[in-house]
Amino acid sequence: MADKLQFDLVSPEARVFSGAVDMVVVPGTEGDFGVLPDHAPFMATIRTGAIEVHSDGSVSRIFIHGGFAEVTPQGLTILAEETAELATLDAADIRAKLEAARLRAKDAGDDGEREQAEAEIAKLEAMQAAMELKH
Amino acid sequence: MASLKDLRNRISSVKSTQKITKAMQMVAAAKLRRAQDSAQAARPYAQKMAQVMANLANGIVAGPETPRLLTGTGKSDTVLLLVLSADRGLCGGFNTNIARLARERVAALIGEGKNVKIITVGKKGFDALKRLHRERIVSAMELKDAASPAALAARVGEEVRKLFDAGGFDVCELISSEFVSVISQKPKARTLIPAREAIDPDAPAPDLNGAIYEYEPDEEGILTALLPRYVDTVVLSALLENAAGEMGARMAAMDNATRNAGELIDKLNLQFNRTRQAKITTELTEIISGAEAV
Protein backbone atom coordinates (compact mmCIF):
# COMPACT_ATOMS: atom_id res chain seq x y z
CA MET A 1 0.00 0.00 0.00
CA ALA A 2 1.43 3.32 -0.97
CA ASP A 3 -0.46 5.33 1.59
CA LYS A 4 0.29 5.02 5.25
CA LEU A 5 -1.69 5.99 8.30
CA GLN A 6 -0.02 8.12 10.93
CA PHE A 7 -0.83 6.45 14.21
CA ASP A 8 -0.12 7.79 17.71
CA LEU A 9 -0.87 5.94 20.90
CA VAL A 10 -0.56 8.22 23.90
CA SER A 11 -0.92 7.33 27.57
CA PRO A 12 -0.54 9.71 30.53
CA GLU A 13 2.91 8.28 31.17
CA ALA A 14 4.37 8.40 27.71
CA ARG A 15 3.90 8.37 23.97
CA VAL A 16 3.67 4.62 23.55
CA PHE A 17 3.64 4.41 19.80
CA SER A 18 4.12 6.85 17.00
CA GLY A 19 4.64 5.95 13.38
CA ALA A 20 3.21 5.21 9.98
CA VAL A 21 1.21 1.99 9.72
CA ASP A 22 -1.15 0.35 7.24
CA MET A 23 -4.20 -0.19 9.39
CA VAL A 24 -5.31 -0.12 13.01
CA VAL A 25 -8.27 -2.08 14.36
CA VAL A 26 -9.74 -0.41 17.43
CA PRO A 27 -12.27 -1.84 19.90
CA GLY A 28 -14.87 0.94 20.12
CA THR A 29 -17.64 0.94 22.72
CA GLU A 30 -20.15 0.38 19.95
CA GLY A 31 -18.13 -2.17 18.03
CA ASP A 32 -14.68 -2.67 16.59
CA PHE A 33 -13.63 -0.52 13.73
CA GLY A 34 -10.66 -0.51 11.42
CA VAL A 35 -8.95 2.71 10.45
CA LEU A 36 -7.24 2.92 7.07
CA PRO A 37 -5.39 5.90 5.61
CA ASP A 38 -7.68 8.81 4.60
CA HIS A 39 -10.42 7.82 6.99
CA ALA A 40 -13.15 10.43 7.56
CA PRO A 41 -12.88 12.51 10.77
CA PHE A 42 -14.21 10.41 13.56
CA MET A 43 -14.23 10.29 17.30
CA ALA A 44 -15.12 7.32 19.46
CA THR A 45 -14.76 6.04 22.98
CA ILE A 46 -12.92 2.79 23.51
CA ARG A 47 -13.74 -0.48 25.18
CA THR A 48 -11.06 -2.19 27.23
CA GLY A 49 -9.32 -4.60 24.91
CA ALA A 50 -6.58 -4.97 22.39
CA ILE A 51 -5.90 -2.84 19.36
CA GLU A 52 -4.34 -4.44 16.32
CA VAL A 53 -1.68 -2.52 14.50
CA HIS A 54 -1.12 -3.80 10.97
CA SER A 55 2.13 -2.71 9.48
CA ASP A 56 3.99 -4.21 6.51
CA GLY A 57 2.20 -7.51 6.79
CA SER A 58 2.90 -7.97 10.49
CA VAL A 59 0.35 -7.44 13.24
CA SER A 60 1.18 -6.28 16.73
CA ARG A 61 -1.42 -6.20 19.43
CA ILE A 62 -1.44 -3.67 22.23
CA PHE A 63 -3.73 -3.86 25.20
CA ILE A 64 -5.46 -0.59 26.10
CA HIS A 65 -7.74 0.39 28.90
CA GLY A 66 -9.96 3.45 29.01
CA GLY A 67 -9.76 6.26 26.55
CA PHE A 68 -10.86 7.30 23.12
CA ALA A 69 -9.77 7.42 19.52
CA GLU A 70 -9.74 10.42 17.26
CA VAL A 71 -9.31 10.27 13.52
CA THR A 72 -8.33 13.45 11.71
CA PRO A 73 -6.95 13.90 8.21
CA GLN A 74 -3.54 13.90 9.89
CA GLY A 75 -3.99 10.41 11.24
CA LEU A 76 -5.28 8.39 14.14
CA THR A 77 -4.64 9.29 17.76
CA ILE A 78 -5.61 7.04 20.62
CA LEU A 79 -5.53 8.36 24.16
CA ALA A 80 -5.49 5.47 26.60
CA GLU A 81 -5.22 5.49 30.37
CA GLU A 82 -3.27 2.27 30.41
CA THR A 83 -1.40 0.41 27.74
CA ALA A 84 0.57 -2.81 27.65
CA GLU A 85 2.29 -4.68 24.87
CA LEU A 86 0.46 -8.00 24.79
CA ALA A 87 3.61 -9.87 23.85
CA THR A 88 5.29 -8.78 27.07
CA LEU A 89 2.44 -9.77 29.37
CA ASP A 90 2.66 -12.89 31.46
CA ALA A 91 -0.48 -15.02 31.66
CA ALA A 92 0.41 -16.47 35.06
CA ASP A 93 1.03 -13.01 36.44
CA ILE A 94 -2.37 -11.79 35.28
CA ARG A 95 -4.04 -14.84 36.74
CA ALA A 96 -2.41 -14.16 40.09
CA LYS A 97 -3.48 -10.52 40.01
CA LEU A 98 -6.99 -11.53 39.05
CA GLU A 99 -7.11 -13.89 41.99
CA ALA A 100 -5.95 -11.15 44.32
CA ALA A 101 -8.47 -8.68 42.95
CA ARG A 102 -11.32 -11.19 43.36
CA LEU A 103 -10.28 -11.75 46.94
CA ARG A 104 -10.24 -8.00 47.52
CA ALA A 105 -13.71 -7.65 46.03
CA LYS A 106 -15.01 -10.30 48.39
CA ASP A 107 -13.40 -8.85 51.52
CA ALA A 108 -14.02 -5.22 50.63
CA GLY A 109 -15.11 -3.20 53.63
CA ASP A 110 -17.08 -0.54 51.79
CA ASP A 111 -18.64 0.07 48.39
CA GLY A 112 -15.78 2.22 47.13
CA GLU A 113 -13.25 -0.52 47.74
CA ARG A 114 -15.46 -3.13 46.13
CA GLU A 115 -16.06 -0.95 43.08
CA GLN A 116 -12.34 -0.46 42.69
CA ALA A 117 -11.66 -4.17 42.94
CA GLU A 118 -14.46 -4.95 40.49
CA ALA A 119 -13.09 -2.45 37.98
CA GLU A 120 -9.72 -4.12 38.34
CA ILE A 121 -11.30 -7.54 37.76
CA ALA A 122 -13.07 -6.36 34.62
CA LYS A 123 -9.82 -4.94 33.30
CA LEU A 124 -7.81 -8.06 34.04
CA GLU A 125 -10.47 -10.31 32.53
CA ALA A 126 -10.41 -8.25 29.35
CA MET A 127 -6.65 -8.54 29.37
CA GLN A 128 -6.88 -12.29 29.73
CA ALA A 129 -9.46 -12.55 26.95
CA ALA A 130 -7.26 -10.49 24.66
CA MET A 131 -4.34 -12.78 25.36
CA GLU A 132 -6.26 -15.97 24.79
CA LEU A 133 -7.45 -14.67 21.45
CA LYS A 134 -3.90 -14.51 20.33
CA HIS A 135 -2.99 -18.10 21.08
CA MET B 1 34.29 33.99 74.99
CA ALA B 2 33.73 30.50 73.67
CA SER B 3 36.37 27.98 74.59
CA LEU B 4 38.43 26.21 71.96
CA LYS B 5 36.59 22.97 72.58
CA ASP B 6 33.20 24.62 72.09
CA LEU B 7 34.36 26.13 68.83
CA ARG B 8 35.73 22.82 67.60
CA ASN B 9 32.42 21.12 68.36
CA ARG B 10 30.51 23.88 66.66
CA ILE B 11 32.61 23.63 63.52
CA SER B 12 32.20 19.88 63.23
CA SER B 13 28.45 20.19 63.77
CA VAL B 14 28.10 22.80 61.02
CA LYS B 15 30.26 20.64 58.78
CA SER B 16 27.99 17.64 59.17
CA THR B 17 24.94 19.83 58.54
CA GLN B 18 26.61 21.02 55.38
CA LYS B 19 27.16 17.43 54.31
CA ILE B 20 23.47 16.72 54.79
CA THR B 21 22.29 19.76 52.85
CA LYS B 22 24.76 18.97 50.09
CA ALA B 23 23.43 15.42 49.86
CA MET B 24 19.84 16.68 49.85
CA GLN B 25 20.67 19.08 47.08
CA MET B 26 22.13 16.32 44.95
CA VAL B 27 19.19 14.02 45.60
CA ALA B 28 16.78 16.81 44.70
CA ALA B 29 18.72 17.50 41.50
CA ALA B 30 18.46 13.86 40.47
CA LYS B 31 14.79 13.70 41.37
CA LEU B 32 14.14 16.97 39.57
CA ARG B 33 15.36 15.45 36.34
CA ARG B 34 13.10 12.48 36.76
CA ALA B 35 10.13 14.67 37.70
CA GLN B 36 10.75 16.89 34.71
CA ASP B 37 10.94 13.88 32.44
CA SER B 38 7.63 12.50 33.64
CA ALA B 39 6.00 15.92 33.40
CA GLN B 40 7.30 16.09 29.86
CA ALA B 41 6.04 12.61 29.06
CA ALA B 42 2.55 13.47 30.27
CA ARG B 43 2.34 16.60 28.16
CA PRO B 44 1.23 15.09 24.81
CA TYR B 45 -1.67 13.35 26.53
CA ALA B 46 -2.79 16.47 28.35
CA GLN B 47 -2.45 18.60 25.24
CA LYS B 48 -4.41 16.20 23.09
CA MET B 49 -7.04 15.93 25.79
CA ALA B 50 -7.39 19.71 26.03
CA GLN B 51 -7.62 19.96 22.26
CA VAL B 52 -10.34 17.35 21.99
CA MET B 53 -12.26 18.86 24.89
CA ALA B 54 -12.11 22.31 23.34
CA ASN B 55 -13.26 20.86 20.07
CA LEU B 56 -16.20 19.10 21.71
CA ALA B 57 -17.14 21.92 24.02
CA ASN B 58 -17.18 24.50 21.26
CA GLY B 59 -19.26 22.30 19.03
CA ILE B 60 -21.91 21.46 21.57
CA VAL B 61 -24.97 23.53 22.35
CA ALA B 62 -25.61 23.52 26.06
CA GLY B 63 -28.92 21.87 26.91
CA PRO B 64 -30.41 20.04 29.83
CA GLU B 65 -28.67 16.88 28.63
CA THR B 66 -25.23 18.41 28.70
CA PRO B 67 -23.09 17.03 31.53
CA ARG B 68 -22.94 19.49 34.41
CA LEU B 69 -19.22 18.99 34.78
CA LEU B 70 -18.93 20.97 31.55
CA THR B 71 -21.46 23.73 32.04
CA GLY B 72 -21.55 23.99 35.81
CA THR B 73 -24.57 24.31 38.02
CA GLY B 74 -25.37 27.81 36.86
CA LYS B 75 -24.42 29.17 40.28
CA SER B 76 -21.17 29.96 41.99
CA ASP B 77 -22.31 30.00 45.62
CA THR B 78 -19.99 27.34 46.93
CA VAL B 79 -16.42 27.19 45.77
CA LEU B 80 -14.17 24.23 46.29
CA LEU B 81 -10.47 24.96 46.46
CA LEU B 82 -8.28 22.05 45.54
CA VAL B 83 -4.90 22.88 47.03
CA LEU B 84 -1.94 20.86 45.79
CA SER B 85 1.27 21.10 47.80
CA ALA B 86 4.18 18.89 48.77
CA ASP B 87 4.39 16.32 51.56
CA ARG B 88 7.73 17.52 52.82
CA GLY B 89 9.27 20.78 53.77
CA LEU B 90 12.83 22.05 53.40
CA CYS B 91 12.09 23.33 49.95
CA GLY B 92 12.27 27.08 50.42
CA GLY B 93 9.07 29.04 49.96
CA PHE B 94 7.41 26.38 47.82
CA ASN B 95 4.70 25.27 50.24
CA THR B 96 4.42 28.67 51.91
CA ASN B 97 3.68 30.35 48.61
CA ILE B 98 0.98 27.86 47.72
CA ALA B 99 -0.60 28.17 51.17
CA ARG B 100 -0.47 31.95 50.99
CA LEU B 101 -2.25 32.04 47.65
CA ALA B 102 -4.83 29.60 49.02
CA ARG B 103 -5.44 31.81 52.06
CA GLU B 104 -5.78 34.87 49.85
CA ARG B 105 -8.31 33.09 47.65
CA VAL B 106 -10.28 31.95 50.68
CA ALA B 107 -10.37 35.49 52.05
CA ALA B 108 -11.34 36.95 48.67
CA LEU B 109 -14.11 34.41 48.12
CA ILE B 110 -15.51 34.87 51.61
CA GLY B 111 -15.40 38.61 50.98
CA GLU B 112 -17.63 38.02 47.95
CA GLY B 113 -20.06 36.20 50.22
CA LYS B 114 -19.35 32.73 48.92
CA ASN B 115 -19.06 29.44 50.76
CA VAL B 116 -15.61 27.93 50.65
CA LYS B 117 -14.63 24.30 50.94
CA ILE B 118 -11.10 23.01 50.73
CA ILE B 119 -9.51 19.75 49.70
CA THR B 120 -5.81 19.58 50.35
CA VAL B 121 -3.46 17.21 48.59
CA GLY B 122 -0.05 17.10 50.23
CA LYS B 123 0.73 17.16 53.93
CA LYS B 124 2.25 20.62 54.05
CA GLY B 125 -0.76 22.30 52.49
CA PHE B 126 -2.98 20.77 55.13
CA ASP B 127 -0.60 21.76 57.93
CA ALA B 128 -0.54 25.35 56.72
CA LEU B 129 -4.29 25.70 56.26
CA LYS B 130 -5.63 23.76 59.23
CA ARG B 131 -4.96 26.48 61.73
CA LEU B 132 -7.16 29.08 60.09
CA HIS B 133 -9.57 27.03 58.05
CA ARG B 134 -9.88 23.65 59.75
CA GLU B 135 -13.67 23.61 59.44
CA ARG B 136 -13.54 24.30 55.71
CA ILE B 137 -11.27 21.39 54.86
CA VAL B 138 -13.53 18.60 53.71
CA SER B 139 -10.78 16.18 52.86
CA ALA B 140 -7.01 15.99 53.17
CA MET B 141 -4.85 13.63 51.19
CA GLU B 142 -1.15 13.03 51.21
CA LEU B 143 1.02 12.41 48.21
CA LYS B 144 2.40 9.23 49.69
CA ASP B 145 -1.11 7.74 50.00
CA ALA B 146 -1.06 6.59 46.40
CA ALA B 147 1.41 4.40 44.56
CA SER B 148 1.83 6.72 41.59
CA PRO B 149 0.88 10.26 40.57
CA ALA B 150 -1.62 8.80 38.11
CA ALA B 151 -3.33 6.77 40.84
CA LEU B 152 -3.39 9.81 43.10
CA ALA B 153 -4.85 12.00 40.35
CA ALA B 154 -7.57 9.40 39.78
CA ARG B 155 -8.41 9.39 43.50
CA VAL B 156 -8.45 13.14 43.74
CA GLY B 157 -10.58 13.38 40.61
CA GLU B 158 -13.03 10.84 41.98
CA GLU B 159 -13.30 12.63 45.30
CA VAL B 160 -13.97 15.94 43.56
CA ARG B 161 -16.56 14.46 41.22
CA LYS B 162 -18.32 12.67 44.03
CA LEU B 163 -18.63 15.90 45.94
CA PHE B 164 -19.80 17.71 42.81
CA ASP B 165 -22.44 15.09 42.00
CA ALA B 166 -23.71 15.33 45.57
CA GLY B 167 -24.16 19.06 45.06
CA GLY B 168 -21.29 19.86 47.42
CA PHE B 169 -19.99 22.78 45.40
CA ASP B 170 -20.62 24.81 42.23
CA VAL B 171 -17.16 25.85 41.14
CA CYS B 172 -13.84 24.16 41.68
CA GLU B 173 -10.57 26.00 41.63
CA LEU B 174 -7.22 24.30 41.47
CA ILE B 175 -4.31 25.90 43.31
CA SER B 176 -0.90 24.54 42.47
CA SER B 177 2.55 25.66 41.58
CA GLU B 178 3.47 26.56 38.05
CA PHE B 179 6.90 25.37 37.00
CA VAL B 180 8.37 28.52 35.47
CA SER B 181 11.96 27.32 35.65
CA VAL B 182 14.19 25.26 37.91
CA ILE B 183 14.72 28.20 40.23
CA SER B 184 11.33 29.83 39.89
CA GLN B 185 7.94 28.41 40.79
CA LYS B 186 4.83 30.50 40.85
CA PRO B 187 1.66 29.45 42.65
CA LYS B 188 -1.42 29.88 40.52
CA ALA B 189 -5.14 29.33 40.74
CA ARG B 190 -7.30 28.18 37.86
CA THR B 191 -10.81 26.94 37.34
CA LEU B 192 -11.24 23.20 37.05
CA ILE B 193 -15.01 22.87 37.13
CA PRO B 194 -17.09 23.92 35.21
CA ALA B 195 -14.80 22.58 32.54
CA ARG B 196 -16.18 24.99 29.95
CA GLU B 197 -14.47 27.89 31.72
CA ALA B 198 -11.27 25.92 32.11
CA ILE B 199 -10.94 25.03 28.48
CA ASP B 200 -8.80 27.30 26.44
CA PRO B 201 -11.09 28.61 23.70
CA ASP B 202 -8.09 29.32 21.51
CA ALA B 203 -6.86 25.74 21.49
CA PRO B 204 -6.09 24.98 17.87
CA ALA B 205 -8.76 22.86 16.25
CA PRO B 206 -7.48 20.10 14.00
CA ASP B 207 -7.70 20.84 10.32
CA LEU B 208 -10.43 18.66 8.89
CA ASN B 209 -10.30 19.94 5.30
CA GLY B 210 -13.91 20.99 5.58
CA ALA B 211 -15.18 17.62 6.76
CA ILE B 212 -17.09 17.28 10.02
CA TYR B 213 -16.54 14.85 12.83
CA GLU B 214 -18.60 11.78 13.26
CA TYR B 215 -19.14 10.72 16.83
CA GLU B 216 -19.65 7.28 18.22
CA PRO B 217 -21.50 7.27 20.59
CA ASP B 218 -23.00 10.77 20.15
CA GLU B 219 -21.28 13.92 21.36
CA GLU B 220 -22.96 13.84 24.72
CA GLY B 221 -22.02 10.23 25.27
CA ILE B 222 -18.40 11.02 24.52
CA LEU B 223 -18.45 14.09 26.74
CA THR B 224 -19.88 12.08 29.62
CA ALA B 225 -17.15 9.51 29.23
CA LEU B 226 -14.43 12.03 28.66
CA LEU B 227 -15.10 14.77 31.22
CA PRO B 228 -14.12 12.76 34.30
CA ARG B 229 -10.97 11.75 32.51
CA TYR B 230 -10.32 15.34 31.60
CA VAL B 231 -10.53 16.36 35.25
CA ASP B 232 -8.10 13.58 36.17
CA THR B 233 -5.72 14.66 33.44
CA VAL B 234 -5.66 18.28 34.59
CA VAL B 235 -5.07 17.16 38.18
CA LEU B 236 -2.34 14.78 37.07
CA SER B 237 -0.45 17.35 35.08
CA ALA B 238 -0.74 19.79 37.99
CA LEU B 239 0.60 17.10 40.34
CA LEU B 240 3.53 16.35 38.07
CA GLU B 241 4.31 20.01 37.64
CA ASN B 242 4.13 20.41 41.40
CA ALA B 243 6.54 17.52 41.93
CA ALA B 244 9.03 19.07 39.54
CA GLY B 245 8.60 22.46 41.22
CA GLU B 246 9.09 20.98 44.67
CA MET B 247 12.35 19.38 43.64
CA GLY B 248 13.52 22.55 41.94
CA ALA B 249 12.70 24.60 45.03
CA ARG B 250 14.40 22.10 47.30
CA MET B 251 17.48 22.08 45.12
CA ALA B 252 17.73 25.86 45.25
CA ALA B 253 17.05 25.96 49.01
CA MET B 254 19.64 23.29 49.76
CA ASP B 255 22.18 24.96 47.50
CA ASN B 256 21.72 28.11 49.55
CA ALA B 257 21.95 26.20 52.80
CA THR B 258 25.19 24.54 51.70
CA ARG B 259 26.67 27.88 50.79
CA ASN B 260 25.59 29.45 54.08
CA ALA B 261 27.10 26.57 55.99
CA GLY B 262 30.35 27.10 54.10
CA GLU B 263 30.41 30.77 55.09
CA LEU B 264 29.65 29.91 58.68
CA ILE B 265 32.49 27.38 58.75
CA ASP B 266 34.92 30.00 57.41
CA LYS B 267 33.84 32.46 60.08
CA LEU B 268 34.07 29.91 62.86
CA ASN B 269 37.49 28.80 61.66
CA LEU B 270 38.72 32.37 61.82
CA GLN B 271 37.35 32.77 65.30
CA PHE B 272 38.88 29.47 66.31
CA ASN B 273 42.35 30.50 65.09
CA ARG B 274 42.12 33.91 66.75
CA THR B 275 41.16 32.33 70.04
CA ARG B 276 43.95 29.80 69.77
CA GLN B 277 46.51 32.54 69.09
CA ALA B 278 45.18 34.69 71.89
CA LYS B 279 45.56 31.75 74.21
CA ILE B 280 49.15 31.12 73.14
CA THR B 281 49.99 34.79 73.55
CA THR B 282 48.53 34.82 77.03
CA GLU B 283 50.50 31.76 77.98
CA LEU B 284 53.70 33.24 76.62
CA THR B 285 53.16 36.49 78.49
CA GLU B 286 52.60 34.57 81.66
CA ILE B 287 55.81 32.57 81.22
CA ILE B 288 57.87 35.64 80.38
CA SER B 289 56.53 37.71 83.26
CA GLY B 290 57.11 34.72 85.55
CA ALA B 291 60.72 34.47 84.33
CA GLU B 292 61.29 38.21 84.82
CA ALA B 293 59.99 38.05 88.36
CA VAL B 294 62.57 35.44 89.33
Automatic annotation (TrEMBL), chain A:
Cited Pfam families: ATP-synt_DE_N
Lipid bilayer topology: Peripheral membrane protein
Residue intervals of the ATP synthase F1 complex delta/epsilon subunit N-terminal domain: 5-82
Subcellular location: Cell membrane; Endomembrane system
Key words of the record: ATP synthesis, Cell membrane, CF(1), Hydrogen ion transport, Ion transport, Membrane, Transport
Source species, domain of life: Bacteria
Protein family: Belongs to the ATPase epsilon chain family.
Free-text function comment from the UniProt entry: Produces ATP from ADP in the presence of a proton gradient across the membrane.
SUBUNIT field: F-type ATPases have 2 components, CF(1) - the catalytic core - and CF(0) - the membrane proton channel. CF(1) has five subunits: alpha(3), beta(3), gamma(1), delta(1), epsilon(1). CF(0) has three main subunits: a, b and c.
Record-given protein name: ATP synthase epsilon chain
Species: Glycocaulis albus
Lineage: Bacteria, Pseudomonadati, Pseudomonadota, Alphaproteobacteria, Maricaulales
Gene: atpC
Automatic annotation (TrEMBL), chain B:
Primary localization: membrane
Keyword Transport included in the entry's annotation: yes
UniProt keyword terms in alphabetical order: ATP synthesis, Cell membrane, CF(1), Hydrogen ion transport, Ion transport, Membrane, Transport
PROSITE patterns per the UniProt record, alphabetical: ATPASE_GAMMA (PS00153)
Subcellular location(s) of the protein: Cell membrane; Membrane
Membrane topology, record value: Peripheral membrane protein
Family of this protein: Belongs to the ATPase gamma chain family.
Function summary: Produces ATP from ADP in the presence of a proton gradient across the membrane. The gamma chain is believed to be important in regulating ATPase activity and the flow of protons through the CF(0) complex.
Subunit structure: F-type ATPases have 2 components, CF(1) - the catalytic core - and CF(0) - the membrane proton channel. CF(1) has five subunits: alpha(3), beta(3), gamma(1), delta(1), epsilon(1). CF(0) has three main subunits: a, b and c.
Protein name: ATP synthase gamma chain
Record organism: Glycocaulis albus
Gene: atpG
